[in-house]
Amino acid sequence: MAEKDILEKVLMAHSDVFADCGNALVYSGRKRLKAEDVFPAPTESFYRRKGKVHSQFEDVSAYLIKNGEIKLQFLIGNETALEGRQVLRKASYQGGAYRGHALH
Hints:
This protein is an alpha+beta fold. It contains three helices and five strands, in the order ααβββββα.
C-alpha cells in the first residue's frame, strides 16, 4: 500500500495539483483555491500527552496563505478505513501543537 501513497504525495506537492484537488473535493468544484496561494507545510506535528512527547504524521500538508498570513492548513491522510472521531483527534493534535507554540 505504501507504494501507492508515493504518487499521491508527489502529485499533491505541486501547488496547482493541490489547488485543483482541493477545489474538486472540498469546494464542490468551485474555484476557491489558487495555486499561487498554496504552499507546502510540515507533515509531522508533535503533541504532549501525559508528560510524553508524541508525533503525528500526515501524508500531505499545505498552507493557504493570503496577504502573507497563514489562513488555513490542509491535512490529508490516506486511510484504509474510516475511524471514529478521526477528525476530532487530528484537530486536537494540531491544536495541542499550536498551544505549545503559543506558550513558549
